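Both lines are given unchanged directly below:

***
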Amino acid sequence: MQEPSPRKNLSAGSVLSDYILPFILPSSIPNLGVVLLGAFGLSYLLQMVWIRIPQEKLFFSKTSLIGYTLITLFRLLALLLVYVLVTEHYKVKEHHTWGRNPGLGGFFISFLVGVPAMLLSASVHNFFIYFELRMENPIPRQFYYYVTSEESIYGVLLLLVIGILLPILIEELFFRGLLYAVLPDRWWIRIPLPALLSTLFAINRLEFPALLVIGLCCSCVRYLTDSTLCSCLTRIGLFCARTLLSRIITIQDPDAVQNAMDYTRTTLYASLIALVLGVVMLIVLIKQMHILHYLQKNEDLKCESEEGKALKIPLREQFHLDLFFGIAFLILCWIMS
């Protein structure tokens, strides 16, 4: 008969070395807490500086295009700084953050996903504004925004670069690249969590439902194609679709309506049709990407490719003190907005 193994003596020293210190000290491998602490810690610091700078000491308005450009640029540079420090310190390889090449078909389908993503986000935005007015709730304000209209070529180019191109590249590289890489390789974690955190980073109550829809579409593309560039193409396709279909699917400006009675039936019907059409289109495109994902997995099993393998991060390594600090800074960003 086999003798039972002796129980480990839990002395104060062993508890300190085995449980307390590993929880307090930074992890030796990349994890969610390090990424969250860097992103939302720097974001909170920039937010506090932006609030405390007196308006009269600036030669521009905080709600002008120049002010919006500066704060957006600093927030994007903060994400880029965290990305560089984490990947360099923990030696995270590029194929974990950038993913790999899914082929021309994968790129093309990813771009097309931007069309249903635009339809869904626009309709969700319109219904959100309508129900807020119907419930007589105050329309939530944005924290970072600009109110000036810019018609010069330089202003349009600046808005195109700062408001569209750089956020697409840096935010996708961070949330669907670095953040995605440190999460467990489970679809129910890697799809919703980056979408939720990227939406929360925007600190935009008004566009929260629409941004969450866009984030979920981009996360699905990232998971099924295993390519961060594909999620970038999805957002580019969304921008192109919004530009081309702006006269058909109108995104309701909350400043143009005072109550639910100001909503025309045309806007509601068009939003409902866009919602149904967007769901149908998205299901078809997701089905095609699922086939690509299946073929990629089979190829990885045959070739034993390292590019298809996720980072091996134990679940216990995700729960460090830095994770709770990161969540605290995230909450503070929203409270102070």
Remarks:
- The mean pLDDT is 88.
